[in-house]
Amino acid sequence: MHFRTLNTLGALCVSLFIALPVSAMAAQDCAKITRNLSLGMSGADVLLLQQMLNQEQGTRVAESGPGAPGFETTYFGPRTKLAVITFQNLFATEVLAPAGLTVGSGFVGTFTRAKLLVMQCKGSSSSLPVSLPPVTSIIPAVIKASSTVTTTSSTNTSISVPEATVAAISTGGGFHSDTPVLMSPSTYTAPHGTSVTLSTIGIASSGNIVHLDDYIVKDVLFGTDGQLSFVVPQDAPRGKHALWVSSSKGDTNKTFLIVTPPAVSPPVVSSATPTEGFFGTKVTVTGSGFLPQGNTVHISYGDITGIPSADGKTLQFSVSPNLPLSPGENRPEFDISIPYWFYVVNDNGLSEPLVFNLKI
Hints:
Blueprint: H1 3-15, H2 44-53, H3 78-90, H4 92-96, H5 110-122, E1 181-185, E2 189-191, E3 195-201, E4 209-212, E5 215-217, E6 221-222, E7 227-231, E8 239-247, E9 250-251, E10 255-260, E11 268-273, E12 276-277, E13 282-288, E14 295-299, E15 302-307, E16 314-318, E17 337-346, E18 349-350, E19 354-359
Parallel strand pairs: 2-10, 12-19
Antiparallel strand pairs: 1-3, 3-7, 4-5, 4-8, 6-7, 8-9, 8-10, 11-13, 13-16, 14-15, 14-17, 17-18, 17-19
């Protein structure tokens, strides 16, 4: 097989597992997976894992038959591994980055179990964003990143944490980390005066400081299960900020928070044209609440920043993921379509997601 074809195939294998949209999962009883799980294992905890994964359309083990909703099994097979990989890539900043990884492995370890626990015990309505937060772009070593995608330094969520961080697991099914980890905020948009809860691992019991870029909130309240709570101060600057926590135990990884006025409406996306096309296709997004400058399209492979909107109702971006393709190139030997989910982010909040299908 031609070397370029091999490169493209490798990139496509990664792209097929990149972020899908997130919708609310129903809160269930707080059940823990108390051991690491991997391909070939069996047990009641594998059944629980499949049930957790099946709560979301995008991470279902199967649509029908064994592993499908209502037909979960106790066996960790290839379909379960694929669903775990998808889940890990969905929450890359919370599950993969703290372990020093960029691509899901299918191994259910400390941070994957911790994220599942947060979603189960807290209920996703209070712990999940409307859709995915920015993630570190997943780029195979043999492929150069596309120059059309840029990430603002103030909201970069890429971190580097020693892999030894995930080695320590406390007894009784709990979690421990030598490096403090920020799993997720209760919301990614918050007006002044809003209470925000942060789910964490390995955080200090006192002296925690919340950072919104250069703005800080001191003496943040520490609750049970590693939760921190703070109220967005009235003088906190508006707009999108990198969010992290620092304490005597060190700094957590970064996510983001958009501080908005109380009455502001977030951007809304109603349609995108076209909905499919080849590499480099220019997409026109129609909706409302877009700003004259400073709009960002977060798409599965990264952030496209600084997009203008002259009328506040339309904006445009090109679909150029990190694949060894030329604009408009068709690869009939693959003949596949890859869904790339995207949403619009600006200082007023973030929209619901839409999807563009890249034809290869």
